[in-house]
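Researcher: Checking consistency across runs. Here is RNase adapter RapZ again:
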Amino acid sequence: MEAVIITGLSGAGKSQAANCLEDLGYYCIDNMPPALIKNFITLAMNEKSSIEKAAFVTDIRGGEFFEEIKPCLQDLKAMGLNFKVLFLEASDEVLIRRFNETRRQHPLAEGGETLSGLRREREVLKEIRAISDFVIDTSNMKSAKLREEIKDIFAKGEEAGFILNISSFGFKHGIPLEADMVFDMRFIPNPYYVPSLKKLTGNSKKIQDYVLKFPETQSFIESADKMITEMIPCYIREGKYHLNLAFGCTGGQHRSVTMANVFAKKFKEQGLRITIEHRDL
């Protein structure tokens, strides 16, 4: 099992880092008391658990619980766990501006004085910063740049955390609101008008054979496969780690289901993470 401990200064981007790791396939928990991290990992390493990667945000918000961070790291080392500590920081000027923009108070600020809270926090965190595996200064970073940095550190391959959510639907029931790309399959001859196929669905081999036998179907598959495959690295570069593809036909029973299944199988064979849903079956 792999684990990442995310810590650092308040306002430095720990939540964004956790969101990025979640997109990369990590099970993420925010504001985790250090003393509980070992317990969670022990549970996650149970043979019945499917969790292979986890990330924990732990910081000064934990108050006295955060004091357990060093013993926690020692315990994880003793377990032989493969873990890294990611520390995020930024300049006082930038952090003060961020707190002002969000109208939130620093956890250690007394009487609303952000700077004094930051100075106390730096003092508390200096030991953990010194032993961190990665230290990222986000002073001059936009969100996309931070995601890129984290991806470069933790992603195993360009498409490690990318997910393709594939669905089928019927136009007469409405287009899925969450769809990023909608493909209209109504140009393919409709099995609905073949009496022996009418009551079957796109999960049936007979329907699939019928839909896939047409040259226009094969031409579409080839073109769409090439387009989507070439676009995925571009989406990842821009910080988008999921893409919702929706295949539609009139009723959402035959052509759309077949094509959703075809592309789910195709991209799964390419090593991508896939989810599939036939909305109107």
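Researcher: Does this match what you'd expect to see?
Model: One thing to look at in this run: The chain has a mean pLDDT of 89.
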